[in-house]
Write a structure and sequence with these properties.
By secondary structure, the chain is an alpha+beta fold. It is about 30% helix and about 30% strand.
Length: about 500
């Protein structure tokens, strides 16, 4: 089967078109141009603001002019993650969607159903001559995934409607009336290198350490991969492994036993994704080589036991590599490993107000070596990116400060940025009542009402439009923000049917 064989056909048709257009965060020019051309083709009024948000308006269908104006909203950018062995340029290559049983997924990359499926539904409604609805404003925002840039920049006079349906949730049958706020905490650790010189020995290629002239070293690489990863908000409570934390645990023990020197480290990519892969190159005394192999085998067995129920595809690899030209000094290595080991990750507190929901969490998202224009640290620093979420603003700041304090203990420069507000739940929402009654009418069951731990743009909309009545809902997506991202086909049909029923039922 292909997407053309799926129902509802208009939604999947437009989703397939969207997949052909590269749309990484902060590089949405082509998808914006597509939207504006779509509006022109269908003779619809459209406008674009200074940051790139697009608004397309459509008049009410005949006989429904008295219904209130409704805003349909989704974001146009996508998270760009791929498997290490997948060749794909997100800035140029189209996404390749595949029908896989009950799901649609992509070949080795994120699918972009977050939030391409929301966009597709908007376009299907805008293009239709048969769907009944009142007047509509379809808002397409930019850069939701990496900065909420479009929502932050939205002007108070850009929209006219006071009812907003956000199409960016990921669980069919669940109605979201609130979300967590979030912020980023980034630490920069300056690097001090020790230059190495190769010498030949009978055992292996090694070096004479400048600080330990009588000790020879050998180089190795350890990799962690095969993890599920996922959304740092919606998946943070699902027992997923963090590749950086798993790798650090092993390295910290090695450093305590033998004294190692890191040369290169790379883990994770995006601030809002749980790290799936991490690797490090390090050197240690040559007489520890056999001990390293034994330690690695023991550690591999331990990790297999720890993660066998939640991370069945976890892979740990150890290999010898060529001796690097330079390595971190012992103190920098120790500081980095101590900080990464101590840095909290995962759920910090569960909600007492909405049982079963995460209240506060933090994600150790990535660790990268970055070149800088400086004369006091060899032009390189280690950047550790973390993100914090909570539906209580003071607790969001508290966990961010906790993370900051860990890195300040090793004299890192720490900054907080990217803060955005949460969306306080309103259980008396009028649009919620419509959504509940229509869902029960269509499917004979009650949907779940909840707040989501992930960040939604609704909190920022509420700042600009304090009288806005909002609801977020969507089809079922799994593995979001990872190459395992997939959308359930049946749930798209149910969500679409429900959306159309809401539009013609609003009074």
């Amino acid at each position: 089967m292909t997407l053309k064989d799926l129902q509802p056909y208009p939604v999947w048709q437009y989703f397939e078109e969207i997949c052909q257009i590269p749309r990484p965060s902060k590089k949405e020019e082509r998808i914006s141009a597509f939207l504006l051309e779509f509006a022109k083709k269908h003779r619809l009024e459209a406008k674009q603001d200074e940051v790139g948000n697009v608004l397309i308006k459509k008049k009410a269908t005949a006989g429904m002019e008295n219904l209130p104006l409704v805003v349909l909203q989704s974001h146009i950018d996508m998270v760009c993650e791929k498997n290490a062995d997948t060749v794909h340029d997100f800035a140029q290559d189209p996404i390749r969607p595949i029908v896989d049983g009950e799901w649609v997924r992509a070949e080795g990359t994120t699918l972009g159903a977050d939030d391409g499926i929301g966009m597709a539904a908007q376009l299907a409604i805008l293009a239709s001559d048969t769907i009944c609805h009142g007047a509509l404003e379809c808002l397409f925002t930019v850069d939701e995934e990496t900065g909420l840039t479009g929502a932050f920049a939205l002007q108070p006079d850009f929209l006219e409607g006071n009812i907003l349906l956000n199409l960016d949730s990921e669980d069919e049958g669940e109605m979201f009336i609130g979300c967590a706020g979030g912020m980023d905490t980034v630490a920069a650790i300056p690097i001090k290198y020790t230059t190495t010189c190769s010498v030949a020995t009978s055992a292996a290629t090694s070096i004479k350490a400048s600080v330990l002239p009588t000790v020879t070293l050998f180089a190795a690489k350890v990799s962690v991969k095969g993890l599920l990863g996922g959304h740092s908000g919606d998946d943070i409570n699902k027992g997923r492994g963090n590749a950086i934390k798993i790798l650090t645990r092993f390295l910290w023990e090695l450093n305590n036993k033998y004294g190692i020197y890191l040369s290169a480290i790379d883990g994770g990519n995006l601030r809002n994704a749980i790290p799936r892969e991490a690797n490090v190159v390090f050197v240690l005394p040559s007489d520890c080589k056999e001990k390293l192999m034994a330690d690695f085998n023991v550690y591999g067995a331990e990790m297999e036991n720890v993660w066998r129920l939640t991370e069945g595809r976890l892979v740990l690899e150890l290999e010898s590599v060529d001796m690097p030209e330079k390595r971190l000094d012992a103190q920098t290595t120790t500081n980095l490993l101590n900080a990464l080991y101590a840095c909290p990750h995962g759920v910090f507190a569960m909600s007492y107000r909405m049982p079963g929901m995460v209240e506060t969490s933090t994600n150790l998202a990535s660790v990268k070596m970055q070149s800088v224009h400086s004369t006091d640290n060899d032009g390189t620093q280690i950047i550790i990116t973390t993100s914090q979420r909570s539906d209580i603003d003071s607790e969001k700041k508290n966990i961010a400060n906790m993370v900051a304090s860990v890195f300040r203990l090793v004299n890192a420069q720490v900054t907080h940025n990217g803060g955005y507000p949460g969306w306080a739940p309103n259980p008396h929402s009028s649009i919620l009542k419509v959504a509940l009654s229509t869902y029960k009418k269509l499917f004979g069951k009650e949907p779940l009402i909840r707040s989501i731990h992930a960040g939604l743009e609704c909190g920022l909309f509420l700042e600009k439009y304090p009288n806005m009545d909002m609801l977020s809902f969507g089809p079922t997506l799994k593995g979001v923000h990872s190459p395992d991202e997939r959308v359930n086909i049946k749930s798209v049909e149910m969500w679409w049917t429900h959306l159309l029923e809401i539009l013609k039922t609003i009074k």
